[in-house]
Specification:
- The protein is 28% helix and 21% strand.
- The protein has 13 helices and 35 strands.
- Among the domains are: 116 residues, no CATH class; 92 residues, Sandwich (Immunoglobulin-like); 160 residues, SPRY domain (Jelly Rolls, Sandwich).
- Helix 9 packs antiparallel against helix 10.
- It is flat.
- By secondary structure, the protein is of the alpha+beta class.
- The strands form eight sheets. The chain has a seven-stranded antiparallel beta sheet with strand order 20-23-32-25-26-27-28. The protein has a seven-stranded antiparallel beta sheet with strand order 21-22-33-24-29-30-31, with no helix packed on it.
- A hairpin with a 5-residue loop joins strand 21 and strand 22.
Length: 746
């Protein structure tokens, strides 16, 4: 009884899985949509009818129509549905739209029937055949039947055709797919008709086909197309639709899916403690959300009340100021009124003056009239230049609250910063990694940032991905010191403010140089002509000006002209280990050679650099890459990459690495576009030099080099050109973030 009770409880708990998303009742003949959701067949027909599709609600099972599935008897829920109006159907048919709105009969393009799935809230394409091309979910029907039996244990099966109240069913008909009482069975199986030959069965709630049938060919499905993820029959296999698809027997698909489902279910059932723990965490999160939400409401209310108190205080002070100004003006106007009233005949100052004029004693008159005359003079002047003592306007007391109203209108919750945007033009890796970013235009400001990075070329450790990070990085750039050479780093950034942390930026991958970066400056003391070469003050850039000799060479090529090669060396020589440096060559340069060579050999060449255009120049003078000693396996003393007019010349074999003044090999060499920056990697012990694209670190050329002595960088110019050494990142003043000091992020 305990096991049976638990089974009933589990069946009752899954009721929500058995409800149709349209009618919210138990599934009845459910169909499987292309999005893998289910919907009742009658509900699907209704939805298509509401969308205006006519004639595409065919029964996928292609079974005889059941009396129990007619609109009047199938289910009471159909009485609540609104079917398409007959006048609308007639109007559509008469106008030539017999299939669906927008497509006339005989249209060239096949129809596209879209079904709005109520579960995923998306439109799914049903194909040309509409509902007739969908499979019935017979497994779901069986589950619904078992559920009905579990919730009504011992209950009788009622007749589906009786008028309410229905009688208990005594018979069932597989052909009609309905249960009947004795009277209804006779009524729907009249004697002398084909239905009279139907064999009655015991009453049941389950009437379904013996097997799943192909909706296209009405044959039992036997295979599963992995490409289309659809069951197919034998005829479907030979159709062009599944040509080249991976098709497997349905038994194999059944076993594979059953194993996967069993394995997943076993894992879930074996981790019930984890599920319960997570449920407890979610319940705690619900309680915390309720408490936090209430606290947030109280905080907002308190802040708004505070704003109201400040506004009320400000209102009182402004009204007090207006009141004081008003009283002052009234007092001044009242005094002016009194003065003017004294000027009336027989009153005030005028009456007093009239009485004084009656005085006959001259000394006494003079004594009294002198003061009175001053007052009368002022009154006369005031009368002639009359103006109110105070203005009656209070325009100076008007408030401009436009800015404040805008601020109050825009008053909203503080948002976290949006995901920063990595500036890929300024972010690069050289001796150190320089990372630069910015916030989107309308993003809330960030107080500080968190920079996270990790290497991608190391074996993955079990568990979650571990990032190295640095908190509270100020500004919008960071300098990552001491990166590992020859590695690939992935970096990301996120901002933080009072509202919390924002989203991470998109990951950016950076390749570090294959060897430690060599820091050096340009040294123009050897082989550099000050007339044709201009070295910058910081000694990191050089420009070649062709001058008159090149112009003469262009004008007198057939008669010969003297044109020298200008060479600039680095002020540092390499005697061990591996070194790397990068430079940018002006794409408009006529001919530039970038590379390395033995310091002694380079200095010998500087003592008398030959003329490359002069008829006296011997191409096999011994200063090239050993072209005259091709039979002797000796490494050349120079290794150069030739650049001209935005192209790189890549030769074949040793000849491709011609020396300071030699030829660049055979004409069979190919050219590649010049990258923004070139990288040179020198392996002194191995005697090898590699030329790379310094942006993508794609290899361009690798060649041998004689490393029997100190080796230094060299740059050669023939005609106009310019070279800029890449500046070390460490010289920038941006914030430094030491890689070794990063904490581990679980």
């Amino acid at each position: 009884m305990g096991a049976k009770g638990n089974g009933l409880t589990s069946m009752k708990n899954m009721e929500k899985e058995l409800l149709c998303p349209v009618c919210q009742e138990m599934y009845k003949q459910p169909l499987v949509l292309p999005c893998t959701h289910n919907v009742c067949q009658a509900c699907a027909r209704e939805v298509l009818g509401q969308q205006g599709y006519i004639g595409h609600g065919g029964d996928p099972s292609s079974e005889p129509t059941s009396p129990a599935s007619t609109p009047s008897t199938r289910s009471p829920r159909l009485s609540r549905r609104t079917l398409p109006k007959p006048d609308r159907l007639d109007r559509l048919l008469k106008s030539g739209f017999g299939t669906y709105p927008g497509r006339k009969r005989g249209a060239l393009h096949p129809q596209v029937i879209m079904f709005p799935c109520p579960a995923c809230q998306g439109d799914v394409e049903l194909g040309e055949r509409g509902l007739a091309g969908l499979f019935r979910n017979l497994t779901l029907e069986r589950v619904v039947e078992r559920y009905r039996q579990s919730v009504s244990v011992g209950g009788a099966i009622l007749c589906q055709l009786c008028k309410p109240p229905p009688l208990e069913a005594t018979k069932g008909c597989t052909e009609c797919r309905a249960t009947f009482c004795n009277e209804c069975f006779k009524l729907f199986h009249p004697w002398g008709t084909q239905k009279a030959q139907h064999e009655p069965t015991l009453p049941t709630l389950s009437f379904r086909p013996k097997g799943l049938m192909c909706p296209d060919h009405k044959e039992e499905v036997t295979h599963y197309c992995k490409t289309c993820q659809r069951l197919v029959c034998q005829l479907c296999r030979v159709r062009r639709t599944h040509s080249g698809h991976k098709i497997t027997p349905v038994l194999s698909a059944y076993q594979a899916l059953k194993d996967k489902l069993t394995k997943s279910l076993t894992y879930i059932l074996g981790n019930q403690d984890t599920v319960q723990t997570q449920i407890c965490e979610l319940e705690e999160a619900v309680r915390h959300t309720e408490v936090s939400g209430q606290q947030a409401k109280e905080e907002v209310s308190q802040l708004v009340r505070g704003l109201g108190a400040v506004l009320e205080e400000k209102r009182a002070s402004l009204l007090q100021a207006i009141e004081e100004c008003q009283q002052e003006r009234l007092a001044r106007l009242s005094a002016q009124i009194q003065e003017h009233r004294s000027l009336l005949d027989g009153s005030g100052l005028v009456g007093y003056a009239q009485e004084v004029l009656k005085e006959t004693d001259q000394p006494c008159f003079v004594q009294a009239a002198k003061q009175l005359h001053n007052r009368i003079a002022r009154a006369t002047e005031a009368l002639q230049t009359f103006r109110p003592a105070a203005s009656s306007s209070f325009r100076h007391c008007q408030l401009d609250v436009g800015r404040e109203m805008k601020l109050l209108t825009e008053l909203n919750f503080l948002r976290v910063p949006e995901a920063p945007v990595i500036d890929t033009q300024r972010t690069f890796a050289y001796d150190q990694i320089f990372l630069c970013w910015r916030l989107p235009p309308h993003s809330p400001p960030a107080w500080h940032y968190t920079v996270e990075f990790r290497r991608t070329d190391v074996p993955a450790q079990p568990g979650p991905t571990r990032w190295q990070r640095r908190e509270e990085v100020r500004g919008t750039s960071a300098l990552l010191e001491n990166p590992d050479t020859g590695s690939v780093y992935v970096l990301r950034v996120r901002g933080c403010n009072k509202a919390g942390y924002g989203e991470y930026s998109e990951d950016v991958h950076l390749h570090t140089p294959p060897a430690p970066v060599l820091h050096f400056f340009l040294d123009g003391r050897w082989g550099a002509s000050r007339e044709r070469l201009a070295i910058s003050k910081d000694q990191r850039a050089v420009r070649s000006v062709p001058g008159l000799p090149l112009l003469l060479a262009a004008d007198r090529l057939l008669t010969g002209c003297h044109l020298s090669v200008d060479v600039v060396l680095g002020d540092v020589a390499v005697t061990q280990g591996r070194s790397y440096w990068a430079c940018a060559v002006d794409p408009a340069s006529y001919l530039v050679k970038v590379g390395v060579g033995l310091e002694s050999k380079l200095q010998e060449s500087f003592q008398g650099a030959p003329d490359v255009i002069s008829p006296r120049y011997d191409p096999d003078s011994g200063h090239d890459s050993g072209a005259e000693d091709a039979t002797v396996e000796a490494s050349p003393p120079f290794a150069f990459l030739t650049i001209g007019m935005g192209k790189i010349l890549l030769g074949s074999g040793a000849n491709s690495n011609a020396g300071l003044t030699g030829r660049d090999g055979p004409t069979a060499g190919c050219t590649v576009p010049l990258p923004p920056r070139l990288g040179i990697c020198l392996d002194y012990e191995r005697g090898r030099v590699s030329f790379l694209d310094a942006v993508s670190f794609r290899g361009l050329l690798e060649c041998p080099l004689d490393c029997s002595g100190p080796v230094c960088p060299a740059f050669c110019f023939i005609g106009g050109g310019a070279v800029q050494l890449q500046e070390p990142v460490g010289t920038k003043p941006e914030r430094k973030v030491t890689i070794g000091g990063f904490a581990k992020l679980d």
